[in-house]
Every structure is written in C-alpha cells, then in structure tokens.
Write a structure and sequence with these properties.
The structure is a single chain. The protein is an alpha/beta fold. The longest helix is centred in the last third of the chain and has 22 residues, at 809-830. The structure holds adenosine-5'-diphosphate (ADP) and zinc ion.
Length: 958
C-alpha cells in the first residue's frame, strides 16, 4: 500500500481561488505555512488572516510554521554573506522542532502540504531545505508545481540542475564544508526582520511586507497626509510657551492636574517620572516639550496600535510625528528614516524591539535626540504586572543619548515599581510626580445581578447610540451575551482571544471607526484602545481585583465627559473567582484572596465608592460624597426598617452553627424540603420556615446588605457566614436600616442633556463623513467633547470656533469650513444665537451644564401634555416606560401641571384597588412610597405605586 507523502505547494501567480482548487485537487487537509513572513504585499488574499479565512471556508486547516521552517532564520549565525546557510539552519533547534512536527504528520498519514510563496518548487526552500531534510529522514516528498502537477524531489532538483546530479547529493557530499545557496532566494533585507513573534498586542499583527521592492523606494505610511508643520522651536522653553501651544496646537484652555508641573520639569531638562491615571493626559507631558525642544523626541511605546493612533492624531494637529515598528512596509520604513535624517520629524514613536536594533540606534545617534520618553514605564520593572525584558535594555539606550532628557510615564505603578523605575532610569526623587487616581467624570454604580440580560438591556437603552464595552469573565459568556444582545437588536460585537485574528481585528476596527458600537469582550480587549468617547462600561461579571476594574473603567470617558460604569454583582461570581484562586500556586493564594476581598469591599460599601477604590491605590479620598456614584446618589429618604428581617436571618445563621453559606440559611428560613436541609435536621430548628415572606432572591438582597453593614462576615474560602458583635446588638433590639428588596437601588435619573442633540447629530454625521473620506477614526477629527461644545455654544465665527475644546490652529484651518456653516445654518433656522464660553466649560468637570435650559424631563412633560402616551414616549426616546414615568415625576416635583388621563390605563390594578391606592396617597402624601405600600398591606408593587403616585400628584396639581 502506498504511503501518503508530504506535499509542497507555492501559490506563485495563482489567485486564491485557483490555489484552493489546487489544494482540493490533491485532497489536502492541512496547509502548513512555511513563509517567514506570513503576508504578501501584493497579494493580500495570502496574508495569514485572509488565507486562514479562505481555507476555513474550504474546510482545510491552516497552521503557521514559518517560525520554525521559514526560509529566513532569525539567528545571524545562519547567514553567510547575507545569504542563508542552509546546512547551519538545518541544525538549529527551531528547525528540528518543525521537522519533527512534519514527520509526525507523516507518521499519522495526514494529508499535509507545506506552503510557500514561490510557484515553482525549485525556486524555494521547500525543496532545498525542507525537501532535503525530509528525504534524509525517509519521508517522501511530493511537490505540487505551478501547473498543479506532482513532481518528486529528484524531478525538482533535476529541473533546477538541467538534469544534472541532484543538489541534495552534492550537498551531502560536502556536508559541513560548503553552504548551499539556491540561486533564486532573495536575501533578507539587512537587519530588518519582522517583529511578528514579539508583538504584544492582540491587534498588532503587521500587514504585508514580504515582497520587497527595490531598495531606496520610499513612501509615507498609509493614512499619512502631508503635515503643514507648526514651527515652535523659536519659542522659549517656558511654561507660558507651553500654555500657548496647548491652546494653539491642541485647542485646550488649561492644563490638567500635574501637566504643568511635569512639563516645566522636563523643559528644565530634569529627568521626570509621571504617574497619572489613564485618560488624565500623560501624552501632552512629553508632546508639548517635544514641540519646544530643538531636535527630536523619541517615544518608546510597546503598543503598536496605540502609537499609530497617537501619530495620526498628532499629524491632524499639525505635528510632524512618525513611527517605526514592524507594521511598516519596507518603503514606508525607508521614508520614515529618511524624514528623520532630514530632521523633518519632531516626535518619533518606536517599539522597544525596533529601538534596540543597531540601525535604529545608529540613526538616532545622528539625529539630535532632545528627549527620550518611556511610555508604560512600569514595563521596566520585574515587580510590575507587565514586565518586558526589552524595557530593561532601554537603560543602555539612554546612556547612548546622554544629552537627551528622560521622561517616564505610566498609569499603574505600586510603590515598589516606582522605586524600581526611578532607580533603573536614575530619576531623582524630585522628578517624581504622582497624580490623583480619581477619575471624576466616571459615574460608578454597582447593582445586584438579578437578571443580567435584562439589566444589560436597560443599561444599553439608557445609552442608545453610544459606544461602550461590556466585560465578561469568559469567552463563552462573551459569545452567549453577544448573541442575546444582537438578537434584541443591539449593535454588539464580540471580542476575545479565541476568535481568529481577522475577526478580532475587524471588530476592534468597527468599534473604533463606527459610532455607537457595543463591544462585548473578555479582558483581552482594551489595551491600547485610545477611543476617547467610550461612554459606558458594563461589568457583566465581577472583575478579579480592583486593579483590573480600575483599568477597565479607565477606558471610558477619556474625553472628560461623563461616562457610566455599572458593575453587576453576584456572589456566584465570587465563588468562581475563589475556584480560580484555588488553582493558583499556594504562595499566591493569600494575596489573590486579599485582592478579591478588597474588590468585595468596594462592591459592598455603603459609603461613597471612591473611598475604597482610591484607598486601594494608596490615596485618601477627602470628600464625604462625590455625587458621582450610586451610593452618593441613593435617596436615603426611602431607607426602610429591616430590623425584623435582620433578626430572622442572623438567628438562622446562629442556629445553623455559623457554618453554612447564604443559600442554605435562606433555604432554612423559607422552609425548604431540600435534602441538605432534611439531612441536617434543620427543619426542626426554631428558625425553620419563618421567612417565607421574601423570595430567595429577596433574601439574598437583604443578606448582602447585612454583610455590607458589618453584621455578618463571609468566609472567602467556604462562603460560610459568621456573626459579628454588631449582630448581637441587633438581637438586643438595635435597628437595622436598609433597602427593601422590592426596590433595588434606584436607577440613576437620566441627566439632562444640555446641548442641542439635533445639532450634535448633524455635526456627528459630518464628522463621520470626513473620517470615512480620510480613512481615520472619527475622534481623530474631533472628540465628542468638541462636538458637544459646538452644540452648546453655537459658535458663529472662526474666532469663536477656535475657542471650542480641541480646536487648535491646524484643526481650525482644516475644519472650520466644514463645521461652521452647518452650525450657522442650524442656528439661523432655529433662531439660536452664539453663547459665551465660560471658564467652567473647559474644566474637565463631568456634568453637562445647563445651557439651552430645557431638560429631558421638560421635554417629556410637554410631549405628554400634548397628547403623547407613556408607551409612545418610551418608544420615541428608546427607554423604559418607567423612565418616562420618572421624567414625569421630576416634572411634577418641579410644579409642572400634568394631565392625568391615560396614565391610569397603564395600571394593571382593578379600579377598586386603584382607588384605594389613590386614597392612601391623598392621606399620606406623595413624598414616600413606603407608607402607602404598608397601608395597602404590601400587596401593590412599587411599579404600580410609582404610576399611581403620579396620578395622585397630577390630580392635585392639575
Ligand atoms: P493618557 O494619560 O491615558 O495617556 P491622553 O494623553 O491620551 O491620556 O489624554 C486623554 C485625553 O485627554 C486626550 O483626548 C487628550 O487630548 C485630552 N487632554 C489631555 N490634556 C488635556 C487638557 N489639558 N485639556 C483638555 N483635554 C486634554
Ligand atoms: Zn460617591
């Protein structure tokens, strides 16, 4: 019986369809890609992702093996005179590993083809290197040639040598003496290999650049429009000059906390370390000095997507920025280095690996580097959570640029890491600047996860049309939730490491480029995303610790506008995380558990959430209330007396021996017949079946509050509950206050939108059109914050337009003509006039100050009084009916009359019950629901009471 050989094939001149047809013709099941660089500049269909996608459709498995069997080894010892020494290469461990895998495939008789780019087998290392190596270990090789014909190894060699003796034999005869250099192999470009393996970010896979055009050919990277460079070199190195650039180039009115201090220090050429939270404006700390210094500023940044984004934004602002990393094609690389040599680049972003290359170092040594910036500086420390060995070598780079001032910036650094950075880079203590970690514009909220999908839907409804991220703990959860949300019509996209590269990149691109997408993601998503208008973060599952939580919510609201962060919390998640902790190395478990406890402390706190959050990062929050978290906004007026429930629950914990978790205690309280209850004899306890007035979920809601209030502690390992001394005080009659389960923490009222929404929509459309035409993300043109200001202040002249947030000189010139006429026309039509911009508006305060005077609730009341029904309005605004009722209630409290008819239609109660409720409101007033709830024997739901209270109030005012 004949054995299946190992096939080889090259695509050569074939189209992807012809190539797949050839594979099919030979019944290939696995395609092993042995190209060193798995992408083709001229044939995008054959890039790793595209090819993999096509193969998947065709039912063929794709395996990348260029890192082991590729023709261009990394090891310089494998080269002689710039050509590959195949004899040496065959002896490398990497090659041997690759070979073993192919041998294994052969032993399993898999139908495997090794693929390269060259159509003719004799022109490629498939024959010379792999073919020979396989033949030497008695694995038969069959080459599919450019005409889809099969050729043996001998036949291919014969083709090459015009029928002479095979090269293989010649090589064997000279083993170890001569290097065999097949004539058609192009030499690798000197010292310019791909970073493919060393790329950190999931999204950083380089585009094609394998078929090198002739050396010397240059072109700017794609998306690089020529920059009309701003000249700032003649300005003095002062803070005043820096403030002028802040205004003229970046369009901002004032520095944010610490920016001025850091900039001043850098301008004095003192080495500096800036620890500032994400979104606080670290970049300007080196970008502004870069513009003022004569010479070049080099920024080391580990994330390719982030540096490209920054460079694009800088070029939009008129700054000659460029980058060097593995994503550049060779001509782009040539163009960039040429620009640097000419002194035409002010800011150069480089990946650490690229920087460490001898030719980059040589280039920089001649380039008059004024400032060396180390972004994500925590990567330098082995104590950090993100250590990168190349970062350590930056010390040597720094020594080679002795006249350059050094600035290191990062968002996360514990004390130890900070010391390490300072020591490694020799930054004096006086050069250290640490900003507050409080992100004022983030609204923090935690809610018990009762019905995750419904809660997610409600949260999304309050953010319709806005971009946001939903974080899930697992890939499975991501897939499931994306499906469910999409089925409900939400523009949800999945993102996790299990998706193939192409899909992931595509989703990320859509999230960045398109408006209002919802990314459903594992924690794999977010690194290096610089989208400034992420409006919400929903944690569908509990984050493992506060670092992760803080990092993830930090992705929202970078434009300084309000962003909402909601965490859905359930104790089941705690158990899951505990389970994972148990799988960890024992030495790490205690720490992981402590971090989880801190996370729970944040979740369960009843004081301002900023206190435990900032305390975790070593900062004391001095205000009592932030007004931007659920706890600070919860209406304390509706706290109820929970003493009886607390006594029942606590005594049941006591009677069951302080040994069980919440679930079992509730089972006993509710008189469950479960095996566990019966087995333990807990049905004979005095607390058995004394708590049937609350459902299991309601008891959980109550019990969590008891934990939060310190009446109980929960063992983080086993979940068992124990009483604290405070619990005994409750037995003695101390009262317990809290929220009743029927009323989970009130949904935050929707803040009034104080800018003109219609104008905003028009401006946003214009921005999208411009962005699409220029092939850049919309926020590169203007941030949301800029558009909001335009729709708030209605600038009518170029001068006023220049005063808008984010409008610097270059943008004024470029875009005033695009946006101003729109604003003018709109204002003319609506009779609106320009509004003076005050200093308040430029501070990064999260509120949207009242400008045009009409709140959403005014609008809702007007429409309602004009005859629109509640369901109609809910549909129109894309919110729940309850939210509309909330707006109406706000209106009533503002003494606005309300027509009462139609409202009663929404009630499900019998007319008699409705009347009883209305009577109760008449007796007890409409300020509180709780007394009415009790008077009605706790039979009418709070939803109904909200509605009927409105009717009662409308009857009074109307
Ligand atoms: P990070 O600290 O995460 O690197 P960035 O430097 O990207 O933050 O800044 C976040 C956002 O804040 C950017 O859109 C930036 O343009 C904006 N920004 C920075 N400084 C200021 C300022 N002084 N006034 C207004 N906006 C600013
Ligand atoms: Zn608060």
């Amino acid at each position: 019986m004949s054995q299946t050989p190992i096939y080889t094939i090259g695509y050569g001149a074939r189209t992807i369809e012809a190539f797949i047809a050839a594979l099919r013709a030979h019944d290939i099941a696995y395609l092993l890609d042995v190209r060193s660089k798995p992408y083709s500049r001229y044939k995008p269909d054959f890039s790793k992702q595209e090819l993999a996608a096509h193969l998947e459709t065709a039912g063929i498995r794709y395996v990348f093996m260029g890192d082991t069997l590729g023709g261009q080894p990394d090891d310089p010892a494998c080269y002689i005179d710039g050509r590959v020494d195949y004899a040496k290469m065959r002896q490398t461990p990497a090659f041997q590993t690759g070979l073993e895998r192919v041998q294994k495939a052969y032993s399993q008789q898999l139908r495997v083809a090794l693929m390269c780019a060259e159509g003719k087998p004799e022109a490629c290392h498939r024959t010379h290197l792999i073919g020979q190596a396989l033949t030497a270990v008695a694995v038969p090789v069959s080459h599919i040639d450019e005409n889809d014909q099969l050729l043996s190894q001998e036949a291919v060699l014969a083709r090459l040598n015009g029928g002479q003796i095979g090269l293989f034999a010649a090589e064997e005869a000279n083993e170890g003496e001569t290097a065999v250099s097949p004539p058609d192999m192009p030499p690798p470009p000197p010292n310019f290999e791909d970073d493919y393996q060393s790329d950190y970010s999931l999204d950083g896979e380089p585009p094609p650049y394998d078929d090198y055009p002739a050396a010397g050919e240059m072109m700017p990277p794609s998306g690089f429009a020529p920059v009309k460079a701003i000249a700032a070199n003649d300005l003095p190195l002062t803070l005043d000059a820096a403030a002028a650039l802040l205004r003229d180039v970046f369009g901002y009115d004032g520095f944010r906390p610490l920016q001025a201090e850091v900039i001043q220090n850098v301008l004095e050429r003192q080495d500096s370390l800036a620890i500032m939270p994400t979104g606080s404006g670290k970049s300007l700390c080196y970008q502004i000095p870069a513009l003022l210094f004569p010479g070049l500023t080099v920024v080391v940044s580990p994330l390719i997507s982030l540096m490209e984004d920054q460079v694009m934004q800088l070029r939009e602002a008129g700054v000659t920025a460029a980058y060097l990393n593995s994503s550049l094609s060779y001509p782009e690389y040539q163009w960039t280095t040429d620009q640097i040599r000419q002194g035409a680049v002010k800011l150069l972003y480089v990946a650490p690996e690229t920087l460490l290359r001898p030719e980059t170092l040589a280039l920089l040594q001649q380039a008059n580097v004024a400032c060396l910036t180390i972004d994500e500086a925590h990567c330098i420390s082995a104590w950090g959570h993100d250590f990168r060995p190349e970062y350590r070598q930056l010390v040597a780079v720094r020594r080679r640029l002795p006249t350059a001032v050094c600035i290191a910036v990062t968002a996360t650094a514990t004390d130890r890491v900070r010391q390490d950075i300072k020591q490694t880079l020799d930054i004096p203590a006086a050069g250290e600047f640490i900003a507050s970690f409080d992100r004022e514009n983030l609204f923090l909220e935690v809610a018990a996860k009762t019905d995750g999908l419904r809660q997610a839907g409600e949260f999304l409804a309050a953010h319709r049309g806005e971009a946001g991220i939903i974080y899930c703990a697992t890939r499975k959860q991501v897939d499931q939730l994306t499906g469910q949300l999409a089925a409900n019509g939400w523009p949800a996209l999945p993102y996790h490491a299990g998706l193939d590269d192409a899909a992931r990149r595509d989703n990320q691109k859509r999230f960045i480029l398109e408006e209002g997408k919802v990314m459903v993601a594992t924690i794999a998503f977010g690194m290096g995303i610089n989208k400034s208008n992420v409006r919400f973060i929903l944690h569908y599952d509990l984050p493992q610790n506060l670092e992760s939580y803080y990092q993830q919510i930090g992705r929202a609201g970078r434009d300084g506008l309000r962003a909402d962060c909601l965490l859905l919390f359930s104790y089941a998640d705690v158990q899951t995380i505990n389970f994972f902790i148990q799988q960890q190395d024992p030495s790490q478990q205690a720490g992981a558990r402590a971090r989880l406890e801190a996370m729970l402390g944040f979740v369960e706190t009843m004081v301002c959430r900023r206190r435990p959050l900032l305390a975790y990062f070593g900062e004391t929050y001095h205000q009592d209330e932030c007004d931007h978290c659920d706890n600070c906004q919860t209406d304390q007026g509706e706290l109820a007396d929970l003493t009886l429930a607390a006594q029942k629950f606590l005594s049941c914990v006591k009677r069951t021996g302080e040994f069980f978790g919440m679930s079992h205690v509730i089972d006993v309280l509710r008189g469950s017949q479960s095996q566990k209850v019966l087995d333990r004899g807990h049905d004979r306890l005095s607390t058995y079946n004394i708590g049937s007035e609350y459902s299991k979920k309601e008891w959980q809601f109550l019990a969590r509050q008891f934990i939060q209030q310190g009446l109980l502690t929960q063992d983080m390992e086993h979940g068992s509950l124990k009483l604290t001394p405070q619990a005994y005080a409750v037995f003695k009659g101390e009262t317990v206050q809290g929220l009743l389960p029927a009323q989970p923490p009130a949904a935050r009222p929707i803040t009034a939108q104080d800018y003109d929404l219609d104008l905003f929509a028009l401006l946003r459309d214009r921005r999208t059109a411009l962005a699409t035409a220029a092939n850049v993300p919309p926020y590169v043109i203007f941030s949301d914050r800029s558009l909001v200001e335009m729709a708030m202040y209605f600038p009518q002249s170029a001068a006023a337009f220049g005063g808008i947030y984010g409008v610097g000189g270059a943008k004024l010139e470029k875009y005033a003509n695009e946006f101003l006429p729109l604003i003018q026309a709109y204002c003319a039509e609506k009779g609106l006039g320009e509004k003076g911009k005050t200093a308040v508006a430029s501070s990064p305060t999260p509120t949207r100050p009242a400008a045009n005077g009409r709140s959403r609730s005014d609008e809702v009341v007007d429409l309602f009084n004009a005859g629109h029904s509640v369901p109609e309005l809910a549909a129109q605004f894309g919110v729940k009916e309850r939210t509309i009722l909330g707006h109406l209630w706000t209106g009533v409290q503002g003494k606005r009359p309300l027509r009462a008819d139609n409202l009663l239609e929404l009630s499900q109660l019998s007319p008699a019950d409705q009347q009883r409720a209305l009577d109760a409101f008449a007796d007890l007033g409409t300020d509180f629901l709780r007394p009415v709830f009790e008077t009605l024997g706790e039979t009418v739901s709070y939803d109904e009471l909200h509605l009927l209270r409105l009717v009662a109030a409308a009857q009074q005012t109307g």
